[in-house]
Amino acid sequence: MLTAIKDTDPVDQTKMGIQVPILKSIMPDRDTAWQDWEKPMIAYQTERLILTSVGSQHEVELFKLHNDPLVQKAIYRNVPQTTEDVHRWVDWLLAQWRKNGFGDWMIYEKVHDGPIFIGRCGLRDYKGTNNLEFAWAFFQNRIGRGLGPEAARFTITHALQNSTKEKVIGFIEKGNTIGEKSANRIGMRYIDDRLYDGKICLYYEMTRSEYFSPNYHCAPRPRA
What we know:
The chain has about 220 residues and is an alpha+beta fold. It has six helices and nine strands; from the N terminus they run βββαααβββαβαββα. Strands 1-2-3-4-5-6-7-9-8 form a nine-stranded mixed beta sheet, with helices on both faces. It starts with a strand and ends in a 12-residue tail after the last helix.
């Protein structure tokens, strides 16, 4: 069930034609709802998407997503994900929501027959730093129409406006050209190669000031 859906207000569209949403009063009462994050579930919508905070009720959908061929190759190194893997992952994400008031979102596309689950997108703490790690995953048949970047702009804006975190970072495995193009499209820039989860990956980042600066997203950021 989707509850408390609110429209976001677009800001200046000169930002590369991007509508970075201004988020208003979506935080639950810390003295009540935070004791059980799944009550109530937060939901927002953009032009084409509905985004809801991740909860245990989403484990079946996430199991299917995490075993999608593209997601398997790009994120899980072709290791099949079990229901227990998904359960542990959701528990970890819920802890992030309780701690920070933001995290990963379930992404649904608005269609005539009703919302369709297409992927997940969000940010989480990165190893005790003041940085946020950005991550997303979408079904293979749902990429290529700009839905990922639309979700990313919302989730990044939400996280930065509800925290004092200074940087958004991301790791992309070498050879994942779709991931590289997507990272550039949302404003992240390649810095260098770094070890991540036992493997050398491409390291991308974007500062808070860069993200909110006018015309930043218009600047090309080719990888050397």
